[in-house]
Amino acid sequence: MLKRLCAKAFPKALWVYHANTGACNGCDIEVIDVLTPYYDAERFGIRLVGSPRHADVVLVSGPVTRQVASALHRLLDAVPEPKLVVAVGSCACGGGAWFDSYGVLGGADQVIPVDYYVPGCPPRPEAILYGIALALGLVSKQVVCERLSQESLEELAQGVSRYGGVSDG
Predict the structure, then answer these.
(1) Would the pLDDT of 117 be above 60?
(2) Taking a C-beta distance cutoff of 8 angstroms, is the pair 47, 10 a contact?
(3) What's the number of CA atoms in the CB half-sphere (13 Å) around residue 148?
(4) Higher confidence at residue 72 or residue 106?
(5) What span, in angstroms and rounded, lies between the C-alpha atoms of 105 and 99?
């Protein structure tokens, strides 16, 4: 249902506002890397905007600290409907290494509703693009996962027989 909403609501372009909620800047660097000519996120209509009032998507990186929580609520209220929230990186997905720290509330989903998660510490630019492509319905999750699992099993079987980790008899 969310994919159909995305395809209907965001048919041509996706304007993204990037919010750092206490990150170490590792994820921020990867997000900026996605926007470089090498990865060329604009071919999918993805643009970084300077104001949440112009955004379709809020991209959150870092664990949500106590000081940032109220500002994050106000930021999300400023984004017009329909809107998506994407948590990028292990910290935004679940709090990362600071999940039980006194100054951290946890991942973004502890404070605001999150639609999509892109895990990793930091996630590769390809993973970020793949997450956005999944959100837009440009790729099929099921087909890619089946192909990857089949290839992985073949590689694993070749590796095991080559190195003698497990024997048949």
Answers:
(1) yes
(2) no
(3) 6
(4) 72
(5) 7
